[in-house]
Write a structure and sequence with these properties.
Elements (H helix, E strand, L loop, with lengths): L1 H60 L7 H33 L9 H29 L3 H29 L7 H32 L6 H44 L1
Helix pairs in contact: 1-2, 1-3, 2-3, 2-4, 4-5, 4-6, 5-6
Length: about 260
């Protein structure tokens, strides 16, 4: 009986081992299919974007209405950045294909596999062609592209700060109920004031870059509007600091008088 039971146990263990191998194989297949599905989806998204990129390039090359010089430079620069981003995405996907998805055994290079590779290569070819056109167009503007990039970056840094600051101004100055609270608030205000000075310098740097461009009328208009908004915030900060300092002085003097008594 013992020998017979041992044989049955051995058979069960063998079957369990086979089941575990099957489970591992199923998990491996599911993982592979998930990665392949994701790869195909990303390549399809890139393929769909190419039509948009082509349209934007054609509008630059043959605009329906005259482009302002600054608008043309900016549109060219933005399109170039978008194309580069799409090519980086394709490069990442190609690495996944080469390392994890590409056929590694005989018989795996099916017609479907070849179709996927062909589509990916076609997408890369179209993106590369768009990139060459974009670089050629950007080269026409010379240093203007670099200077406009500096202008754009300065505005991108300023926009979120001024929106946040505008909301602070609308909310009004925080109330302090004690000397410690007032001292904490004055620290916050001075930190905000330091940010304000930094943002003004950012705007000025962008304006300096704009002045080096062949045309900068639109950039000048944006700079003037942003400085006007900055002035409102900076003036408010200074006024609030004066008020808070007066409040701190009053409480400090009162505390001194109480100690003297």
């Amino acid at each position: 009986m013992k020998a017979e039971l041992n044989d049955q146990v051995a058979d069960l263990k063998s079957q369990a081992g086979v089941n575990e191998q099957i489970d591992e194989k199923i998990i491996s297949i599911d993982t592979f299919n998930g990665k392949l599905k994701s790869y195909i989806s990303v390549i399809s998204e890139l393929d769909a974007w190419i039509a948009e990129g082509r349209k934007r390039m054609d509008e630059l090359l043959n605009p329906e209405a005259p482009f302002e010089a600054e608008e043309r430079v900016l549109a060219t620069m933005e399109l170039g950045e978008d194309i580069t981003n799409k090519m980086d995405i394709h490069e990442d996907q190609q690495k996944i294909w080469d390392e994890e998805l590409a056929p590694s055994q005989a018989g795996e290079d099916s017609a479907e596999c070849k179709a996927i590779v062909e589509k990916s290569n076609n997408v890369l070819g179209l993106l590369s062609g768009l990139n060459m056109e974009s670089e050629s167009e950007a080269a026409k503007f010379g240093e203007d592209v670099k200077h406009l990039a500096d202008v754009t970056n300065s505005v991108k840094k300023f926009d979120p700060w001024i929106k946040k600051s505008d909301n602070k101004v609308k909310s009004g100055m925080k109330k302090a109920g004690s000397l410690p609270e007032a001292e904490q608030l004055i620290d916050e205000l001075k930190s905000w004031q330091a940010e304000s000075a930094k943002m003004k310098q950012t705007l000025d740097n962008g304006n300096a870059a704009a002045q080096k461009m062949s045309t900068h009328g639109e950039a000048d208009k944006t700079y003037a509007e942003n400085v006007k908004r900055w002035d409102v915030v900076d003036k408010c900060i200074k006024e609030w600091i004066v008020k808070m300092e007066a409040l701190i002085k009053m409480w400090t003097d009162q505390a001194g008088e109480l100690r003297a008594d």
